[in-house]
Amino acid sequence: MDPVPAYYRRLPVYVVIDTSGSMSGEPIHAMEAGLRSLQADLMTDPQAIETVWISVITFDSTAQQIVPLVDIEEFDVPVLEAQGATAFGEAIELLMESIELEVRKTSETQKGDWRPMAFILTDGEPTDDWEEIAEEFKRKSPAFLIGCGAGPEADDAALKKVCDTVVHLKDTQPGTLGAFMQWVTLSVTNTSQAAGTVADRNTVIPEFNFEAAEATSSDEQSD
Questions:
Q1: If you average pLDDT over every residue of the chain, what do you get?
Q2: Is the domain defined by 17-101+114-216 classed in CATH 3.40.50.300?
């Protein structure tokens, strides 16, 4: 990671994408297009250019951080490939490890980053052991985590175990996933603009109300 001035505060944004075999074809291409739109839209916002850094983590049979945390201006949209199973627990563990490694903490010599935002999208059920790492993530709360279950096979219950907020998409059609990524962009933009004017742990999430989706709160819904 390039050196960052000690006075500089970043807004780290982690996008965690299910790239299992069920996401092949139009869904995975829609997520690539969504990442391109995310970068393009943020690049029109001077405050976002100043603060937003982005990382991409994918998970199928294993999880990997395919884009380490990088300045939005230097972000290259990765090529996504769909294959394999759904290592949800491994993805949560890698997210936690990446935040620990990459997000700066306040010290006597530097300002810490703003609280990270993380978005995790999946269209299926976990195929690995995930409960213990989900409990650890929830307990440590290293980021404001928004979960998205896409389509009828998505396991919203697993997302509610670890996420602060869970939204559900009715399907994985390109238009639906594109609308979700637009909502992600608006969430990041709002939070970036609020940086420095609200408490560090505040995250500004707009209402999620487009027709293709429905929103639930992990705090309000029973498992």
A1: 88
A2: no
